[in-house]
Amino acid sequence: MWFDECDGFVELCRGSLPYYLLIVLPIFIIIAPANPVAASHEFPAFRMNQYDLHGVPHGCRSASISLEARSVSGWSTSRHCVVARALDLTPDSFQAIKKKAGSLIVVLPEDLSSLNDEQKEHIMALEVAMMTVPETTIPVYFSKWNPELEVILQDVGNSFITDDKAGSATEALFNSITASGYQVVVPSAQPAVKPDVKISTLHGKLTGSGSEDKLPTIAIVAHYDSHGATSELAFGAESNASGVSMLLELARLFSVVYSVGKSRPHHNLVFIVTGAGKLNYLGSKKWLEDQLDGLEGSVIQDASYVLCLDSVSASDKLYVHVSKPPKDFSAGGLLVKEIKTVANNLNHPPVEGIHKKINLADESLAWEHERYSIRRLPAATISSLRSHDDPIRKTILDVYSDDKIDKLYKHTTIVAEALARHMYNVSYSQIFSEPLSVSKDSLTMWMKYLTSQPRSASLINDKHSLVNTIKESMQKYLGEVKITNHIPDKREPEVVFYDTTKATINVYSVKPAVFDLILTIAILVYLGFIYLVVYNFSKFYNFATKISSGKSKSS
Amino acid sequence: MTLFHFGNCVALVYVPYHLTYKYSGLSEYGAFWKCVQAGGIYIFVQLIKMLALATFFPTADSEGAKLGFDFIGELLKSSMDIADLIGIYLVLNSIPGKGHAKVLTAGIGWASAEVVLTRFLLLWVGARGAEFDWKYIQKSLESNISLVQHITTATLVWLWSRHDLKQRFVPVVTSLLFITVYRPLIAEMLITSFMIGPWSALFIKAIHAAVLGSVTLHIYSALAHSIGIF
């Protein structure tokens, strides 16, 4: 009996079923689009920073992924894409992934601002590990947290339990069959060199009363770009939106002072907003070369002091970083002394001077003033950070928060007051008081504006709205505002940027190949059952007839 | 790999239809073109239904979505499915002869037309993707259930049209026909009100089709026996 049925089944396959399908299906396959369905999960993601500085490659060198997703503990070969929370990654595990895994997707914490200090340090340490040379050859992406991603993270974490954790062999087998896997696909080309790189540096001037050329000049410098493990998320509130905000506020205050003939000091003030500060202060370097080596006279030629502002709202303390301690009665010495006195008068923690010699052997300079000191201009950097190594200066965690404003306000007041006292050569308190005083609103406005967009040097060129906005407001306060664009040398560029800073990650949920085979077997069994039912339907029918006829007889 | 999955789904949809066609003896009658004709009438009836729905219930969708379950509107919409019964009646009339073949041809033709029009594109677009989803297997199983349902419906319509049906069966057949018409509505109500998962919904549908089918079979066999079809 069984053989007969099998015969019938074979007959069926031999019948009309396969022949036309053999023709029709391939035709369909040929005319159908390659991938008819969109992924059920799509996330925007930001590729890790990639740039060459002085010919040394930094960051992540590739962009496209098409690999199976695994957890940070579950991956084993270069065919796996590690999907991990930023807090689950350590610098060590990153190094291992960098060497042997196929790619990495870092999921950032849900709320960056509510992290505790330990978590922040953890992520910053990870970022430092990521950005240190040598370059990363695998694609690394950052994605913001979202609930769908959380589900994927959990699934990836639960499945592929390594053998020691699985209960029994059958359980492990069952797991490997039913586990839902994820295929991560990022379709993008190899990152290409960005063609139109321009590093814009802006400067403007307030001219003192008297013969312009003979007056001493004080320069205020701040760089506007930011830096982080991924360029698209580098909002750089502390470094260096705070410095630029302070500079623009100083410009506003002093423009008022300079506009009244009587109160116009016998000093020139130059404000410089530099680009590519995070890349070895390239903007300052090129601007100085332009100014000092050019044929025309320079606005900074005989600067009596250059004051750089960098990360001025991180802590309550202020530090004055110098590469050579200023002589007591030089302009610099007096200015620094004035800053200390003002801080003292305003009941502020004492301002500490920190002396660090320029180390040209280092890959990049520590503070921006070193660029000026190298060109024999007396310079110092004012910062609320003790060390230039502080990871807060180069992190994606550096986002706007309201408590920065208070510190920024205090520090701006100190610097403005000290500058004014130095220029007027007076030593009594409160030159800037109502109605002419540091405005919290204006500082907040600038902080919010600057941190509303990623400001990585690679994202900003001379046409960027940020450069235009800074230029317009400088023109409002200052005279002779100019933008100097530096275009890297064609043959030996100091800096090279790459595109593909962001991409879309597609995540497909997939089943292992074994699963499809098992499914086929199940379907075959089911179809066999249907076959039996249909084949023996006459028996059911006869049975039904018997019952009904029996009933009709009895009734 | 994904094509393999598509193959799985298609096999699941197609093979039961083929088996029914082959082993119910229809192939011996050469009823293939009759089935196609039934499919043609199916398409025609669906077009008329769509026109009617679009004309008389144009905005029900957007309003109903907010109010949750708009019972009266849905009931009226489901009433349009009576057109299906009329369509099946037409099919039955257009098929000469009597006996099992007539009912089966109408049922299979109707069901195949539905499967080809509603399932194939879905499977082609969905099941071939890299993404795996149980929904395609579920849809395939559901089409098997609908085969049983459509044959049942065709039988019921045939029974209803017979004058020699015993009087005591008439209310039963009529009420079964009503249940068939409002089946999608009842199913949807159950699913939304009891939050039934897709697998249990499928299971309930299968049980429902089986029960309805066996009752119909019971009535049919009695009549067929009495008028001498074997």
How does this model look, in words?
- Chain B: It is found in: Cell membrane; Endoplasmic reticulum membrane.
- Chain B: It is a multi-pass membrane protein.
- Chain B: This is BOS complex subunit TMEM147.
- The complex is a heterodimer of chains A (555) and B (230).
- Chain A is of the alpha/beta class and 555 residues long.
- Chain A contains 15 helices and 18 strands.
- In chain A, the strands form 3 sheets. In chain A, strands 14-13-15-12-10-11-9-16 form an 8-stranded mixed sheet, with helices on both faces.
- The longest helix of chain A is centred in the middle third of the chain and has 23 residues, at 237-259.
- Chain A is elongated.
- The two termini of chain A are 38 Å apart.
- The model of chain A is unreliable at 34-38 and 161-166 (pLDDT under 50).
- With 230 residues, chain B is mainly α.
- Chain B has 11 helices and no strands.
- Chain B has helices at residues 2-23, 26-29, 32-56, 60-67, 71-79, 82-94, 100-118, 120-126, 135-161, 170-194, 198-227.
- In chain B, helix 9 (135-161) runs antiparallel to helix 10 (170-194) and helix 10 runs antiparallel to helix 11 (198-227).
- The termini of chain B are far apart.
- The A-B interface holds A 8, 12, 15, 17, 28-29, 32, 35-37, 39-40, 180, 183, 508-511, 513, 516, 519-520, 523, 526-527, 530-531, 534-535, 537, 540-541, 544-545, 547-549, 551-552 and B 1, 3-5, 8, 11-12, 14-16, 18-20, 22-24, 124-126, 128-133, 137, 144, 214, 217-222, 224-226.
